[in-house]
Design brief:
- Helix content is 35%, strand content 21%.
- The chain has 299 residues and is α+β, with helices and mostly antiparallel strands.
- It folds into 2 domains: 149 residues, Ribosomal Protein S5, domain 2 (2-Layer Sandwich), CATH 3.30.230; 127 residues, GHMP kinase, C-terminal domain (Alpha-Beta Plaits).
- The chain starts with 10 loop residues before the first strand and ends in a 12-residue tail after the last strand.
Length: 299
């Protein structure tokens, strides 16, 4: 049966994202060529949706508009609660869709600011809005486009993790030497990505600020990272709050995916999906039509 939403006048295409990239906690974000498509329709939803209602309310307040009810429509391929920025795609996409319905052009800095207030942290939002690799925070985020030769192998266990739970595991303070370790590694990654000298980031994806504390949520995390790097990855890391494990490579994608899957299976995660992705350098976009792959997915 055809979806009743296929003939909406426009959709907002928003890429999945991977945050932190190891040492860049709450600073690094990367947009990926895996997308959700977001639309809104005037009218009250059949079933109350507090998540969407919060976004609509924030939009009306930010723009000084009289509140109106809207229904959220989501189509796409970004799995929820997997460390791939699903909530960011919906927050950003819904705000952008409301802007278009109110005949405004997309103001990316405004979208980032407003969506970040809802999300609570800027990394996924900024990457999804701008595309590419971003260093977020401050007055203006920095962006680097990522060459298509660089691949990202995502091992996605079929378990869910909560960002709130993952953040609750973090300590209130860290050792000085751990902060220095992350600063050095994050600087190496940023330099390598900005110059497109990706091999120079090899060995720089290790982290001491968040991954060691979150490892308990993803059995086999350390072994999956080690397996990916032995199979040829430039580096690997926990994507956002997890459970997805992400590897960066220029070759050997199949072997890397198999190595991560083997490690996760051995740790008791029996169901793992592997996706080989490239970066999305475009960020949030308005499109007229849904691709066939997104038409019968989640709503």
């Amino acid at each position: 049966m055809k979806s009743p939403h296929l003939h909406l006048p426009f959709w907002i295409r928003v890429p999945a994202t991977s945050a932190n990239l190891g040492p860049g906690f709450d600073a690094f974000g990367l947009a990926l060529d895996l997308h959700n498509y977001i639309a809104v329709e005037p009218g009250a939803p059949e079933v109350p949706d507090p998540f969407a209602a919060e976004i609509v309310d924030a939009y009306h307040k930010a723009r000084g508009l009289t509140p109106k009810p809207y229904r959220l429509v989501v189509r796409g391929l970004v799995p929820p609660a997997r460390g791939l920025g699903s909530s960011a795609t919906i927050r950003l996409g819904m705000l952008a869709a409301l802007e278009k319905l109110n005949k405004r052009s997309l103001d990316v800095p405004w979208l980032i600011e407003t969506a970040t207030r809802l999300e609570g942290h800027p990394d996924n939002i900024t990457a999804a809005a701008m595309g590419g690799f971003v260093v977020c925070g401050g007055q203006k985020p920095a962006k680097a486009k990522i060459a298509s030769r660089l691949k990202f192998v995502a091992a996605i266990p079929r378990i869910e993790t909560s960002t709130r739970t993952a953040r609750s595991l973090l300590p209130p303070s860290v050792a000085f030497q751990d902060a220095v370790h992350n600063l050095r590694n994050a600087s190496r990654i940023a330099a390598a990505f900005l110059q497109e000298k990706y091999e120079e980031a090899r060995g720089a994806f290790t982290d001491r600020l968040h991954q060691p504390y979150r490892a308990a949520l993803v059995p086999g995390l350390e072994e999956a990272i080690e397996g990916a790097e032995k199979a040829g990855a430039i580096g690997a890391f926990l994507s956002g709050a997890g459970p997805t494990v992400m590897a960066v490579c220029l070759k050997s994608e199949t072997a890397i995916g198999q190595a991560m899957t083997k490690a996760l299976h051995k740790a008791g995660l029996d169901s793992v999906d592997v996706k080989v992705l490239k970066a999305d350098n475009d960020g949030v976009q308005v499109v007229r039509f849904l691709p066939s792959s997104a038409r019968e997915t989640r709503c």
